[in-house]
Request: fold
Amino acid sequence: MDATAEDTLRRALSEKQSAIDAQGSAVRALKDSKADQSQIDAAVDALNALKLDKSSIEKKLQAAVTGGSPSDGSLGREAFRHAVGNTLERRLFYIPSFKIYRGVAGLYDYGPPGCSVKSNVLSFWRQHFVLEENMLEVDCPCVTPEAVLKASGHVDKFTDLMVKDDYGNCYRADHLLKDFCNEKLQKDLTITAEKSKELKHVLAMLDDFSSEQLGAKIKEYGITAPDTKNPLSDPYPFNLMFQTSIGPSGLIRGYMRPETAQGIFVNFKDLYYYNGNKLPFAAAQIGQAFRNEISPRQGLLRVREFTLAEIEHFVDPEDKSHPKYPEVENLEFLMFPREEQMSGQSAKVIRLGDAVSKGIVNNETLGYFIGRVYLFLTRLGIDKERLRFRQHLANEMAHYAADCWDAEIECSYGWIECVGIADRSAYDLRAHTENSKVALVASEKFAEPKEVEKLVITPVKKELGLAFKADQRNIVEALEAMKEKEAIEMKSSLESKGEVEFFVCTLGKTMTIKKNMVSISKEKRKEHQRVFTPSVIEPSFGIGRIIYCLFEHCFYTRPSKAGDEQLNVFRFPPLVAPIKCTVFPLVQNKKYEEVATAISRSLTAAKISHKIDVTGTSIGKRYARTDELGVPFAITVDSTTSVTVRERDSKDQIRVNVEELAAVMRLVTEGQSTWADVWSRFPHHSAGSTEESDDRC
Reply:
């Protein structure tokens, strides 16, 4: 239900409560005045009717804010989350790590079906991105020397805001505020529509809050420590990297990498040479990353070790077109541009080509990757109605970034950022060039020498240091990262006024820049080549988050044949299903078991993952067990020459000769044919009453 409908229900509830209060007063007045009993009875009936109306509105409002519907019997968010989580752990998709030692928060093990889903997701990622775009895949160490992460800014800036209570318990400040707002919105039906709007605005702007603003909101709402209910400290930054030492001396400081990208950036020079000194090109990496989360929670959504799949697409900053952009420009999907967020509107369906042409998305290459990410996620099985691309607000972005979008997937925890797609400009390569003294640049040779006019921005570091001291570095970086138009405007203001107000995003404040602090000029010179630092378009995929959202989007329940219980099903597409098919002899029979074993060999030869079950359990129970694992197809051996193939979600069955079974299974599991295709080609089979009569696990 949208915000407008929810606000309407809240207003209706408030009005109904006022009517109840007024009617209650009327009933008391009639009783006090010794009115006729028939009048009192009529007034009481009217009061009860109002209370029934209020109860109905409360149920509708509760359903609206928790994601369930009072009329369709669907689970609320928390009940749904519990059902999914219980099934995932019971069927060993994933479990807490080291649990016999009571485990450590934020660490999880993938079990056999979870490993298979993850492997299938990563395999498709390589196919969809690395192979399709002819990317250069690398594999870099997890342990990273401090110098690398000092240059990238992680040592100084990779922080979250933390608060403590009197006992030293630590909490992430923005999560406490987020939880408070969500709790109020979902469970306190008495708050007004105006208060609801205020809380939703806080949620929308949460990532934009400074430590002071965050602390002020925590105090304003009276938020205390969840465990002890004690007061909380003011928020302060906590660095999220795991520190270590490299070598026995302990003198070389290092960190477990918080992202995989830096390994690609520092190898740019060699990768550029490997690619024939040509742009654009992309490098990709799949690997583990580590973040010492303050308060890990929400299962796979916030953990301390996780898998990232990252792409760094290097491009000429003066030409961010993409030859394959026309392939995605007609895609339409939910987008949440910055302007809509600031004005309190909702995400809306936008044609990607329109977003790029109108400048909502900064450039074609960024737009191309947004489109490719959309196709990747929906092919995996993510519901397109619960997928949106949200543009970062201005203060969320680093000063050097040209544009940033997050692919957010809605699950029982709300909208979760799963993929970040950013135009990082040339910041990373410039930072490593400056700190390593190795030029990470590209070049374009001219057929004939060209006379070029270049805008040169030269911060006067001595004057900036005297004026701003510790802030000097941030101001220098911001000045050097200025776009040409911005620099020309600054030059004009400095010449006319002698000073100019300059906002530094990384400091979150405006500085007064004087004429003696920066030199901005245009110079003409003849050049045989153009040497430049490439820009980087970076799609970064949180694989664990994507997988968890996929689990929720694919989970549903259906009644058993007897109708006395709900059976759990994962509707994984064959592309990502942990097991592609199962093989069941209908009954324990030596001939049937021999046929099942032969089928298993043919499926193995065709590289189709499968499971064979020759137990005497009823076929209905075996179907139910494999449905709960998300197996899309079940092969039942009920003769020596042909078998039935059952599709998980429709439960429809076809009959296929044993000789052609492996080929048919390969077509449908690899996506070369759909179930509808094979349904139209093969004889249909009606399950006998004995076959699925007992489908309870």
About this structure: The chain is about 40% helix and 25% strand. The mean pLDDT is 89.
